[in-house]
């Protein structure tokens, strides 16, 4: 019935506090104890001529950093509430105190020490791979089956080694459990703030004498207080808080600070808020009915989206029932500009596009101040138009918060840093967390987060032999960070510069040639087997090099009659490529492939930039080309890298229809233009990903709508 751990406070008169202006400070009793003990130890060290720099002085509790938890964010809480030692059990003899703390305890220990790891390096790899694979892809029950399977294979091949039969034993043997060793779950009383080791040791009611021991802890208030008393207490607390805050809110500076310090979640504000509310309004007002839903679903079935966007088909036909935030996001950014055109009245559709355009700016991982201002202006137009197009009840507090999003982004950065999509996208994993073990949801989620953050460091620590380098490529697929950095190879000897890379796809007058540095996160590339380029495609590659490098005499590999440089036809195709958040891939001989629809800028015949050049990647490949020695390309200032990374793209035929440009949607024909050297394009020149939809006009002419999507830029 009594708490196993409580914090007792008193006046601290240690050396540090005694030297302060007030000669003391109000601190926890255990804090005063540590300070006094630390002072005695440091004095003894000085007397013994021991270098005191060994003892860290930046934290008052650093001497308590034991068991490899020196880097744990939970060390202070764990040591503060350590219940194994008596508060009053101290020895004033300094030498006894010194004997309790060895100098070696201050030296940093190996956080991933694994004394039980097998000596055989292959067996080490098997154990490390199993524990990493289980932590990423397998739940606890499945891990036991995986371990049993591997042990059977080891027995079949007469190996004198077996994995522990449980996942916990395997983690202990490999040192993987040390990552989360410092994570502990405590229970805190909401009234007196007493901290308990676990829910078992926590009493059902608050036992603090200051609060009269009448309230209850851990949401058990309803069990000990009648419903009438509960309502009265809540009303009393509410009025007390209101009266207290009203005094502060009378000060304009305080009001401004507390409002600017509040983060608005864009996921709920934009997608689960306004977009859902307007759809409900259109359904209630009969603007959209079953017939309109059926026609929209028919067009939606023809749409092709990038891999990062959730597809919607049947939910549109069912009236947008049980939509999640990710689905509302796809609806706003991709589907609605196409499907709502002709369904909503013209003024309402124009107003809706203000909202869509603002969302296109706000959802970008990287955003400029000018884009923030533009998005805010669009949301102002949207809210003002809603006040005209609908009744006053459409204007809610959620809509008012639209007008504070620009302040939130200016203060706290792009929305990717704090919106709540992460919790929704990992909802399936989190459901498993609730039933895994006795740690509970919070502790299990924290352990998973810490494991993912330090898996790369763990692999670097346990793979210490040079003979284990071949294992790194396999293990790198199971961690979220690159391991080790020294093994990642790039195709360019020049450093990557983001500004130059951005200029490559935004300035078609000075296009990259294909051998410029790519972002480090792009590597390692996912190669296929080397192959020979198709002869028809090879001719376009040859023409590309002739134009890009101004080499009209560059010959084909088949042309051996002339004494001039020839171009090799050997290429290596790529499975896919990730460039700053964009995932590109070829069609792989299929008609539709998500991630293959892109857009690029070109210079037209009249010298103007053509923005709406959309196409479909057929395949990605690398090609090696060495400039001839006689070629002058300002090589005195530039190092030529022979490896080039290209995409072979079939471009859609353009359309003269410009009726949807104001909506951010472009028309093109669903057929490809003839291949040319323009089909060979460096991956550096890909502007952004697009979605497409196929519609039929009133004359039964098939057209394709191209929806450019926000450019992602994970710098």
UniProtKB/TrEMBL annotation:
It comes from the Eukaryota. This is Transposase domain-containing protein. It comes from Phycomyces blakesleeanus (strain ATCC 8743b / DSM 1359 / FGSC 10004 / NBRC 33097 / NRRL 1555).
